[in-house]
Write a structure and sequence with these properties.
The chain has helices spanning about 1-20, 50-60, 95-105; strands spanning about 25-35, 35-45, 65-75, 75-80, 80-85, 90. It contains 3 helices and 6 strands.
Length: about 110
């Protein structure tokens, strides 16, 4: 019985080390504000139009110029897709903007 318990504990420990949570798909909008482009990222459950409405209440001069989805996992980034509610698509250069957003190097992010 002790041997069986030991094997069970080893299996639990090994499983705990190998199971990791799946990365979460997030949405983003690239806005033009104060003469620069920046990323606004938010949960998948929020509609793009809802997030942009929130941004515009805080920054009425903000313009939405691209939108889509991204997935970030262990340093790998995928970005693409489109926003049906804003009628905007993602662009190739969004990838670098999202990387910059995730690194938060300048502290100038807009949060939702």
């Amino acid at each position: 019985m002790k041997k069986l318990q030991d094997q069970d504990i080893k299996l639990q420990n090994r499983t705990a080390h190998t199971i990791k949570t799946a990365p979460e798909v997030k949405k983003y909008i690239v806005i033009h504000l104060n003469d620069k482009e920046q990323v606004v990222a938010f949960p998948h459950a929020t509609k793009h139009i809802e997030a942009f409405d929130h941004v515009q209440r805080q920054h009425p001069t903000a313009k939405a110029i691209a939108a889509g989805f991204y997935l970030y996992d262990d340093g790998a980034l995928w970005a693409g897709g489109q926003s049906d509610t804003l009628n905007l698509v993602s662009r190739e250069q969004d990838h670098e903007l999202i990387k910059h957003h995730l690194a938060n190097t300048d502290g100038q992010q807009i949060s939702i």
